[in-house]
Amino acid sequence: MSRLLERYRQEIVPKMMEKFGYRNKMRVPKLHKIVVSMGVGSATQDGKKLESAMRDLALVTGQKPKYTKARKSVAGFKLRKGQSIGCLVTLRGTRLYEFLDRLINITIPRVRDFRGLSPDSFDPDGNYSLGLPDQYVFPEISVDKVEFPQGVNITLVIDKSSREESRELLSLFGVPFAGTER
Fold first, then answer.
1. In this structure, what are the phi and psi dihedrals at residue 127, rounded to the nearest 5 degrees?
2. Burial 42-53 (b: 16+ CB within 10 A, else e)
3. Please, which pLDDT band fits residue 72 given cuts at 50, 70 and 90?
4. Which of 146, 136, 135, 171 minimizes the C-alpha distance to 36?
5. Which residue blocks in the chain are alpha helix, DSSP H?
6. Which domains are assigned to the chain?
7. What is the pLDDT of residues 94-153, one digit of tens each?
């Protein structure tokens, strides 16, 4: 079992039940999935950039990514409907907690001039999204082998929660928000 999942079950659930007054531990918000994606806008001209992004995303997540395709044509961007323009991975179960553990403890501290994650990046359903400037911050990626620097988008999908509940859950996991001491 992942150490973060064990911590969730042993420490975080009782704290959340006490703080929000849940009567049943099944009511406590839970991470449902993590979606890690890379949009490669220049893939329309150079297919090697998309292949490079796929390879890097597979290394980071430990799972094979799938292509994302354009939903409609945009002449100004030389984009055709159905053309591959990015890649994504959906992590669930044990891989989700292992990825989150590495993200919190290894990857985020490697971001240059890091001052904490924005506490305002929650959507109305309580899901949290963050963007990393490039894939170099992941320790699995060798800087020498990266052909094209590319940003990474990460969305943490949380079940049964509001913004406040989601923020408290992620804080208990150890996510470093700006303006809070860890």
1. -80, 150
2. ebbeeeebbebb
3. confident
4. 135
5. 3-7, 13-20, 47-61, 93-102, 163-173
6. 31-159 (3.30.1440.10)
7. 999 999 999 999 988 888 888 888 888 999 999 999 998 888 888 888 777 777 788 899
